[in-house]
Specification:
single chain, 205 residues, alpha+beta, 434 Repressor (Amino-terminal Domain), Jelly Rolls, 4-stranded antiparallel sheet, 10 strands, elongated
């Protein structure tokens, strides 16, 4: 038996609040995954910075057009943005087209973001690939962060604060990434690696 009258209105309002809350968390996680500020996401989506801030704090119910603009700017479908946490399947498949790709400044390095968005604040992982001579410069992550780079193909060099180390296929480099660091393909062939970034400061204790 369904609810009617005031009870139905209350149920609808509770559902809207729950959906809005999940939307805000999802937008914030995706924004942080791309290392975007509120201003940068506003510029890319055409949604006012104040509105995005209100959405993330669950202080407003955005229109479908606003949700579409944010989803488009964050490279995800509207369905993914609106999907409630309790409804997410245990077995989830992401297509190649759903995987965001970041490019280095020289256009020779690619980072495919394959990590789970729910862990982005403390654990991130990527598929790294680079053409010969490709260089990826990265700013310092939060204090205590550590990156693990497992080379699958070619030879990769990592430089952190003046210290340089190389690794070939089958080898792994682990290094502090809470300071500027550079990853380079020093071989004459394409290089590829799996990269995992642990952001919890506790890892260095």
């Amino acid at each position: 038996m369904g609810v009617e009258g005031r009870d139905k209105a209350k149920a609808l309002e509770a559902g809207a609040v729950a959906l809005s809350g999940q939307l805000g968390k999802t937008v914030q996680r995706l924004r942080k995954a791309y290392n975007l500020s509120l201003s940068e996401l506003s510029e890319q989506s055409g949604v006012a910075k104040s509105i995005i801030s209100q959405i993330e704090r669950n202080e407003t119910n955005p229109t479908l057009a606003t949700i579409w603009r944010l989803a488009h700017a964050l490279d995800v479908s509207i369905e993914r943005v609106l999907q409630a946490a309790e409804d997410e399947p245990f077995l989830e498949k992401c297509s190649k087209g759903d995987t965001p790709i970041l490019m280095s400044d020289d256009g020779k390095c690619r980072l495919a973001i394959i990590g789970w968005i729910k862990t982005v604040e403390w654990l991130q992982w990527y598929e790294f690939s680079a053409d010969p001579g490709g260089v990826l410069d990265s700013e310092a992550h939060q204090r205590g962060s550590v990156e693990c780079l497992s080379v699958n193909l070619g030879e990769i060099e990592v430089e952190v604060a003046g210290t340089v180390e190389r690794a070939r296929a089958g080898e792994t480099l682990r290094y502090r990434c809470d300071r500027p660091h550079t990853i380079s393909n020093v071989s004459a062939e394409p290089a590829a690696a799996m990269m995992v970034c642990i952001l919890k400061p506790a890892v260095m204790q």
